[in-house]
Structures are given as structure tokens and as C-alpha cells.
Amino acid sequence: MANWDLVRIFLEVARIGSFRAASEQLNMSANFLSKRITLLERAYKTTLMTRHVDGIRLTHEGLQVLEAAKRMEQASFGLDCALNQASPTLNGEVRIAVTEGLGTFWLAPRLVEFQRAYPGLLVDLKCEMRSADVLRLEADVAVQLENPDQPDLKRVKVGRLHVMPFVSPSYVEIYGMPTSADDIRQNHRVVIQDAEQTRGKEMYDRYAGREQIGFVAMRNNVSTAHLWSIAKGAGIGWLPTYVPALGDPLIPLDIGIQFQLDIWLAYHPDAKKIARVKQVIDWTAQSFDGRKYPWFRDEFVHPKDLQKAYKDAEPLVNLFAGFKKVSRPKDVPVFPKRANENGR
């Protein structure tokens, strides 16, 4: 019988294409992974892969083992499903992969209440900008801003993220209130988030019209750093429209540059057969219900209208309780009047 632990490591290294990249992905040393592959090769007295400076190459035998390993992976998942169906109590671990911003500012606070309702569940929340490969069982459930392209994956659009530019009162005190896209290009500084799924670089290249040096004050790769740099006055930055509810007095700018990112829920086709995973899938979808949370609707709701559009019994401020509120000058409104065509 093949040792599944060794086969699983072979499968990951073969898919990723190098020991170095696989070591970062699996959080194991490249030397350890290489020794595991050597053990597998010795057990079957054949060479499965050759090492090169730019990665690995599978031999003919290695390609055959790769296909068999994929079938073992599917069988392993099927076994897990069968065992959980035989004992369908809501106990055990569920892994949720989500983008860093939605995970930190939205799902994590919601999960506290969920875990109290299901104390037997351990939720492993992975907040990363890289999309998780659910078919490879990197996560049980994935929430991402890109439509998954694997045809064998179950995917559901659960909401839409609306993004627009914001500025902090402290920035306005120093540089003045931006009035238009041209005014920003000529007289202001911006902050951009350059990470997978955010489209920050794409939107910059489309609308900025100038080099980053001397115009971009800061580049961030995670949403938390991006938000705090804007809140502290580093520059103008694009954020989801629900951000003012976090407590920071950020000012939305109506300069005609907004964009949307659809929110996708992805999971393995057999995942809903596992009771605990099904519960998390259903709960996650409800967490982005636009009927309850208007900032996730398909249609744009301006930040100044969120309080009016939000109809739930729980106060809006409670949804983001725990995030620090900073003071703002009394003469700088949270939601200024929208500029007219002349920027006034």
C-alpha cells in the first residue's frame, strides 16, 4: 500500500513545480520535502521526478503516479464525506479561505456569534489575497473576488463589493478636499493596494495617467494596512463602501471612478454532504445577503445612504463593534455634499 502522507507531498510538489515554492506553500523545508520524495522513490525503486535549477520535471513514471495520486486524493475526500455522514453531528473543524479584508472586517466579527451557536465547531479562518484551491482541499469553503474557473467546482455569487475613493479629514486639513479626478492627478497623493483579486494595479493603470513615483504615497498588499494608511492621511485610496461603518470618519469622494467586484462562494461538489461544512456554507452565503446588508447588493448604495438602507433590528454600529473610532475635526463633515459638474 502506498503511504498517503508521502503521496500527498509528491502531489503538492508535482503540482507546484518546485521544492522551494512547495516548501513555502506547505510550511515545510525544501530539504524535508525532497527527502520524502526520495523515500517514495526508494519504496517503488523508480525515479519519479528530476531536479533542475528552475524546478522539477516528472518522469514518465512520475506522470503515471501523479494521475493515481489525484484519484487517491478524491478517494480520501470521499472517505471523509462518508465518515461524516455516518456521524453527522456539528462537531469538528471547518476551513474557510477568504480575502484578507472581508475576512478581517466582516466574517471574523460574524463568526463569534456563529461559534456560540455551534460550540462544537472549530472554524479555521484563513485570510489571504491568494485564491484557495478548494478542489485540492486547501479549504472546505472559499470566499473570493474572482469567479473560480474550475468546471468541477460548485460556485455561487453571494454578493457584490462596491469600491470608491475615500479620504481622511487629516489629509484634507493638509492638502485640501479633492474635487475631481484631474485635481487628484495634479495636486494630490494616492494610496493603492497591489494584491491578487483587488484589481488595484489594473484600476491605477486605467485611470491614473501618470507614473507612480511622486504620486503614489504608499503601496500595500493587504487590506488592513491599506485602510489604516488612508485613515491616517497618507493619501486618497479606494475602499469598499461599507468602510465608514467601521468607525473611522472617512470621506467618500464622488469623482466618477467606482468599480465593483463580485463576491463568490466556492466549495467542493461533495462538501455539502458533510453536515458541519453545509452549515458553514449556508451561514457564509447569508453573511453576504444584500437584502439584509445593503452594501453587498448588486446596485450601488452610496455610503451616506447606508444607514437609511439598512433595515435590520441590530444597530449598524454594532456590526463593526471593536474597531477603534478616531476623532475628527468638527468643521470637516463625514459625508460632504456631492460635487457638481464644475467640481464645486
Describe the structure.
The protein is of the alpha/beta class and 344 residues long. The protein folds into three domains: 4-86, Arc Repressor Mutant, subunit A, CATH 1.10.10; 92-160 and 262-296, D-Maltodextrin-Binding Protein, domain 2 (3-Layer(aba) Sandwich); 161-260 and 300-320, D-Maltodextrin-Binding Protein, domain 2 (3-Layer(aba) Sandwich). The protein contains eleven helices and eleven strands. It has helices at residues 4-16, 19-26, 30-44, 60-86, 100-117, 169-175, 181-187, 200-207, 223-231, 275-287, 306-309, and strands spanning 49-52, 55-58, 92-98, 121-127, 141-144, 154-167, 190-193, 216-220, 237-240, 251-252, 259-267. The strands form three sheets. Strands 3, 4, 5, 6, 9, 10 and 11 form a seven-stranded mixed beta sheet that branches. A two-stranded antiparallel sheet has the order 1-2. Strands 7-8 form a two-stranded parallel ribbon. Helix 8 (200-207) links the parallel strand 7 and strand 8. Helix 1 (4-16) packs across helix 3 (30-44), helix 1 crosses helix 4 (60-86) and helix 2 (19-26) crosses helix 3. The radius of gyration is 24 Å and the shape is globular. The termini are far apart. Residues 326-344 have low confidence and may be disordered.
